[in-house]
Design a protein that fits this description.
22-stranded antiparallel barrel; Maltoporin, Chain A
């Protein structure tokens, strides 16, 4: 049905000649090229302005903006350590940016459009790229020898409804001096996120007995300095260096009230104050060596430190009464070196061999002190130091079987050692050390069976990276309780299979694809029951004497399968060739055995359905653009030892408008959270353990975000 829709659109395009917009073609059927002339009518200022005009690219831009990394097929929440061969979908001159914090998404708005030669959209496996991807890859080719100098600036802020304005000021300068090209920039930004939570509590027989409310005000203040330097040597080598320094502050103010039926309000307050500091230096060097091939080396070193103090207090009219405070100090460090050699072994076969080394450190001290008799006293201490040494040996082989068929195979050997030292409040230190070794094969097939149709297939074994946050204790603000860490977790292993069909309409009128995927996961990471139900002699311990314990751990196996569909359509067939509508839909069925109840359930907070859409209309004759994007998700749930959460997710919508005032001056309006409702959660609280099916009470919880309005004025000189 999806293809029939686009065939109908194609017929409309033929019926209305001249409304579709053509772009330069490439000898490679898998590459769609947008030359610089394509963007002239949009009068772009930055590379970001250019990419936003390419159909189907906005979803990749949004994903890169949101990404914090992977780190486990089930848990996520951390940035992937090391470089690896997959990941980035936005490249510069066939190569990734050698940065983590200073990433490609942050660089797009700092690169002037005058330095860009063309934009390539590459579908499927390709021997020319610095990464592997079975989907779309954006490759930006920079103009060689361009001697340009420009300064980009942006000033504005975001207004959170009924609250305050958060200012944002950015400036960057790019220039060329002989063989040097550079970009330097700075940003001063305050971000604010406001949400309200309303809870109503009921007994198991549906009798209302209490309600509560939280109003959360999160404020982020950052000062960011970054730069990129490129040197083109006379011997043909190319050297890139980039760096970033970002100190910041974060505060959280959460006044609360709770009230039992027919009782006065109990007023409380949760406060967090955090200081952070990040820095990063990265670079890469590329050179063609006669007789050997192309040599590439990437390196990076970074450090991320936070120091956070949290306090929970009663706030009656008579004065503040402390309850407890948490103190967290955490430092993450990473050093990476990746080097490889790529050589043509025949006219249609290319081999890359290389090695990557990554040294990671994660150190955290977490303490909780309860207030008693006029002073704070230690209650919990979790002092954990983790070190990971990881090495990868990899070989990539690309075989261009014909002009229509490309097979790319990879074999990676991963060898690592993770050591941890835990210093508890009482008792002896706990030291653990584990060595891991894995083989990770991958095969990609790309078949262009026509100019407009392509099939892609991938088989890959993946090994997740352990999220060190699962090693350490943390405080769950939503539930007001400490969750302990577990240094005994092992990585997830998964076999991943995918088959994708893509159809592309002529004359840049649109494209559609559908992907079927299946994953089998072993050692799936989720919450696991560590309660000792029997003593050393195998005798059952009475329920009232049990010490109920749960932490992150490994579940023997889990599965995931489903499909992803995406499409973009230029509305030339209705006389609006500069308007593009795109939509992405994912249906994913996940299954794992719950470790507390024994029932089969979906992955934690994983909705079965998700729809994302984006519409953009550029009215070039009026020098303006406008559009809307949105996300619609299905329901999801979460299971713990004494709690089941079932969430009904709300929809998120965003509207924007851009106006070219005069010259390079642009005015931008963005309206977010147009429907403040975010999600409802029904939480079932059991008395001690869900296995006894002894429900204590349940709560209806509702989260709402406030509407946010952003305005920017930007330009170049």
């Amino acid at each position: 049905m999806l293809k029939s829709f686009f065939i109908s659109a194609l017929l409309c395009s033929v019926a209305f000649p001249g409304v579709a917009i053509a772009q330069a073609s490439s000898d490679d059927q898998s590459v769609v090229t947008y030359e610089k002339e394509y963007f002239i009518k949009y009068d772009p200022i930055t590379l970001l302005d250019m990419l936003q005009r390419v159909p189907g690219v906005q979803a990749i831009l949004d994903a890169n903006r949101r990404q914090g990394g992977g780190g486990g097929t089930g848990q996520g929440g951390q940035q992937e350590r090391g470089f690896g061969s997959a990941g980035d979908q936005i490249l510069i001159n066939n190569k990734r940016l050698s940065g983590k914090a200073n990433n490609i998404s942050d660089s797009l708005a700092r690169i002037s459009e005058t330095t860009v030669e063309r934009v390539e959209i590459i579908r499927g496996a390709s021997s020319d790229l610095d990464v592997q991807s079975q989907g779309l890859v954006i490759n930006v080719i920079m103009a060689g020898g361009a001697s340009t100098s420009s300064t980009f600036w942006k000033v504005g802020g975001r207004y959170s409804e009924t609250y305050v304005i958060s200012p944002d000021l950015q400036v960057s300068h790019n220039d060329s001096r002989g063989k040097f090209d550079y970009i330097i920039g700075a940003q001063i930004r305050q971000g604010q996120h406001i949400e309200h939570r309303f809870d109503q509590s009921y007994s198991p027989d549906d009798v209302f007995f209490a309600d509560s409310q939280r109003r959360t005000d999160n404020i982020f203040k950052t000062l960011k300095f970054n730069g990129n330097l490129t040197y083109n040597a006379e011997n043909g080598g190319e050297f890139h260096l980039n760096g970033q320094f970002e100190p910041g502050k974060y505060t959280k103010r959460e006044p609360r009230f709770s009230r039992d039926l027919n009782q006065p309000k109990n007023l409380q307050n949760w406060d967090e104050d955090q200081k952070s500091q990040k820095w990063e230096i990265g670079g890469d060097y590329t050179k063609n060596i006669d007789g050997l091939g192309s040599w590439k080396t990437l390196f990076i070193a970074n450090r991320d430190r936070i120091d956070k103090l949290s306090r929970f207090e009663n706030t009656p009219a008579s004065g503040i009464v402390p309850i407890f405070q948490n103190d967290q100090f955490r430092v993450k460090q990473e050093k990476i070196l990746r080097t490889s050699l790529t050589k043509d072994i025949t006219s249609n076969q290319i081999v890359e061999v290389g090695v990557e080394t990554a040294i990671n450190n994660y150190d955290q001290i977490f303490t909780q002190e309860t207030y008693d008799s006029g002073d704070y006293n230690f209650n919990t201490n979790d002092d954990v130091a983790v070190k990971e040494n990881r090495y990868e040996l990899f070989t990539n082989h690309t075989y261009n079987v014909s002009s229509k068929i490309v097979i790319q195979s990879t074999l990676t050997g991963e060898f690592s050692k993770i050591s941890s030292l835990t210093v508890p409040l009482n008792g002896a230190n706990i030291e653990r050390s584990k060595k891991f070794s894995f083989l990770k094969p991958r095969i990609d097939l790309r078949y262009d069976f026509s100019v407009h149709d392509q099939i892609r297939a991938t088989v890959e074994k993946k090994i997740s990276q352990l999220d060190f946050q699962n090693f350490v204790a943390k405080y769950d603000v939503s539930l007001d309780r400490i969750k302990l860490g577990n240094t005994g977790i092992v990585p997830e292993k998964s076999w991943n299979y995918s088959l994708t069909y893509e159809h592309r309409l002529p004359n840049d009128a649109g494209a559609a694809q559908i992907e079927f995927f299946y994953r089998y996961i072993s050692d799936y990471i989720d919450l696991v029951d560590f309660t000792e139900f029997f003593d050393g002699n195998g005798v059952a311990i009475p329920r009232e004497n049990l010490d109920f314990t749960f932490v992150s751990g490994n579940i023997p196996n889990a599965t995931s399968y489903g499909l992803k569909t995406s499409g973009s359509l230029r509305l030339g067939f209705i006389g609006r060739p500069e308007a593009v509508f795109s939509v992405d839909y994912k249906w994913e069925k996940t299954n794992v055995t719950d470790q507390f109840s024994g029932v089969e359930r979906s992955f934690k907070w994983m909705p079965e359905h998700e729809v994302k859409f984006n519409f953009r209309h550029d009215i070039t004759k009026w020098n303006m653009s406008y559009g809307v994007k949105g996300t619609i998700q299905g329901n999801s749930d979460s299971h713990e030892i004494d709690l089941i959460d079932r969430s009904s997710n709300g929809d998120l919508y965003e509207v924007f408008a851009e106006f070219k005032i005069f010259g390079d001056l642009k005015l931008i309006f963005i309206f977010e959270h147009l429907t403040p409702y975010k999600y409802d959660v029904v939480s079932e609280f059991y008395k001690d353990h869900i296995r006894y099916n002894d429900l204590d009470h349940y709560q209806n919880r509702q989260w709402k975000f406030v509407r946010e309005y952003t305005v920017y004025l930007q330009g170049t000189f």
